[in-house]
Amino acid sequence: MKKEQIVDVLETIATLLELQEENPFKIRAYTNAARSIEAWGGNLRELAEENRLQEIPGVGKAIAGKISELVLTGESTFFAELRSKFPPGILELFGLPGLGAKKIKALYEKLQVGSIADLKKACEMGRVAELPGFGKTTQDKLIATISNRAKHVGSFQLGAVAAEAEELLDDLRQHPGATQVSSAGSYRRRKEIVRDLDFIVATQAPEAITEFFVGHALVESVSARGATKTSVRLHSGIQADLRVVSTAEYPFA
DNA sequence: CCGACGTCGCATAGTC
DNA sequence: GACGATGCGA
DNA sequence: GTCGG
Question: What's the Å distance between residue A136 CA and nucleotide C1 C1'?
Fold first, then answer.
């Protein structure tokens, strides 16, 4: 297992320990270890094989043991057991502003809320406002936040994808077969939130352009490939659509 | 072995 | 309206 | 859970 994944596991352990109201210092120990490992340049596998994990600040005997297990087997019995105590979706709830461990625990124990979808239903049924510590205001705000969030699933901040978009545009323009290249849609309009990137290329050689597009270094995977429209996913995770048109119809595309 | 581990201020919403 | 709880960031 | 006296 890779370093980033291990860091993620340690952070998740900390979060789950919060839910069962563990000793706050123990919780922090896990987050500290995660931060520390993140900053550690070296190779975890080597360190694990030489039993030197404890050289990393914040990593003691217990956490070192869990890391070795993760590095070697990709699993941790402790983590698996901890995880099994809660529904997987409960971690989503930490992403909602205003919700922390205490509130989430109450929602889970009293209303069996184990995901954002569950929470939305509970709010809509008016059950959340009944809970001590919650009220109508909170319930309404949660509904609003969740609905708002749904709109942004699979969307990106403009700045987060601008670099990829521009690089792709430039490279398409470099291609000898492309006579006109432009972006379209929300990216062209510089909307703050973009769901996907749209490119339009005028060409006499659609096949070659498509080939070039799907083979581009920024492309992670190809989800659809047709004569006039091709969809791919870039490394950042955003979807990018390419429309190829004849030079004659480009002005109308 | 055993105690310390950051702390404070602010905002918000709920309860008394 | 005061007060404690919770969440969040400095 | 980890660190340090």
Answer: 21
- Is any atom of strand C within 7 angstroms of residue A104's beta carbon? yes
Domain A156-252 = CATH 3.30.460.10? yes
What is the dihedral sign for C-alpha A56, A60, A65, A66? Answer: negative
Residue A27 CB in 7 A reach of strand C: no
Single-letter amino acid code for the residue at A224: A
> Is residue A47 very low, low, confident or very high in pLDDT (cuts 50, 70, 90)?
very high
Protein CA A56 to sugar C1' B9 (Å): 34
State the fold for domain A3-83: DNA polymerase; domain 1 (1.10.150)
Nearest-nucleotide field for A104 (CA, C1'): C6
CATH class of A88-151: mainly alpha
Question: Is the model more confident about A90 or about A157?
Answer: A90
Structure pTM? 0.81
Phi-psi region for residue A98, left (φ > 0), alpha (ψ -120 to 50) or beta? left
